[in-house]
Amino acid sequence: NSTVEIGEGNLKLLYSVDGGKLSQYINRRNSVSAVVEQSYSYYTGFSGTDEDPQASGAYVFRSNGSFSIKSEGKDSLTVMKGPLLDEVHQHPTSWIHQITRVYKGKEHAEIEFTIGPIPIDDGAGKEIVTQIKTTMNTNGTFYTDSNGRDFIKRIRDHRADWDLEVSQAIAGNYYPINVGVYVEDGKKELSVLVDRAIGGSSIMDGQIELMLHRRLLHDDSRGVGEVLNETVCAFDDCKGLVIKGKYFIRIDPIGEGAKWRRSVGQEIYSPLILAFAEQDGDDWM
Amino acid sequence: LKTEKLANALAIAQHHDAVTGTERQHVAADYTMRLHMGYVEAEKVISSSLSSMTNTHGKTETSYEQCPLLNISYCPPSETLLSNGKSLVVVVYNPLGWNREEVIQIPVSIDEVIVQDFKGREVESQLLPVTKSSLSIRNDHLKAYLGKPSDTVIKYWLAFQVSVPPLGFSTYVVSGARAGARSVMSSAFTVQGEV
Q1: ipTM above 0.95, yes or no
Q2: Cβ <8 Å between A276 and B186
Q3: Of the four listed, A49, A74, B2, B162, which is most buried by Cβ atoms within 10 Å?
Q4: pLDDT of residue A135
């Protein structure tokens, strides 16, 4: 009674009732089981000082601390179950809404996020990230696609062809992600595919993080000449941008994730096209 | 019928500032405008192509609509047609070279629906209640985009399984349910604290 299970097919996700958080990933077909957590946090943008004037802005990512996003009020989740798919709706804050879907015929979880307007009334620009954490021992290594081509090995705080001196612990390990990112521990591989170009990393072993949205209050003086603080206006009422997208999570036995990353990675960027028409009664086309 | 505006918009959107979102806001607005112009142009090509491909019985060519605002739960053809007692034809095109089995979702305003494939066989479907937060996002954005809220009220997402051949299309018909056949309503519950 302490967990809620979703998924009518091979894939099951377990959520803890106390806290309403994702706790376990189970695939009955290939016997993969893993402890998984998913959460949101943000980096505040560095505003620059007399001694260190480079501010965090559109081009330059210089975080000034990381803050986890705690649920406002009581943690709750709404679950919808049916023959084709199960959905879990979560609303950790008034400006983050998330739907996790598990389809009966698929062996991955689809996470749809709606984020924004990012609040800036505390005077801090924020870069919102989601983190997927497992207990996998990944030894500081992760793999990201190279502009949609091969997945390339990345080692935290390391470059293969020069001696790296780390001055930005987070940004120095961020990479562009167009298709996906994965980690492996010799037994399993955790893969995440995205539907847009974003930044991401594996800041801790067994963890993958994706930067989903940004709203900053300083120009980084690197050419854009404008603060990254986009708004949408209706009737002179301007609000920060709300973004909506999806990412996809799957855990495979080692060596079996590549096929999914290649095929589903292609499908994400080539969605089915829907067109609608009307029909009178039984006048079949 | 051409797709040159879409080609131009996509070419411009490959600039590094467009990919990373580091462009100025007025430039972002320009990208949006060009992509929209490209979408509107390409939509006509798609509609014409589908009309040509589905017109196999020599009938008058069907006019197809698309739903570019489906991401904010807005799709006038699926919302209005079903409530007016007509059937909705959904054509699903697969641009990839392998068969696809996927679940698609469209917003509907009625709660008794049947989905059939092109041979008239019933297809398994599921209704999922639209949440308050989805409706709030829909209403906020429709006010911004259309200048007014929607004329229709949606109640559910209709999900159904589609199977689409490589580089081809499948057709499904969504109708108000007749006796004995209807979509399965999702069971919904909220967990709060330990309750």
Answers
A1: no
A2: no
A3: B162
A4: 97
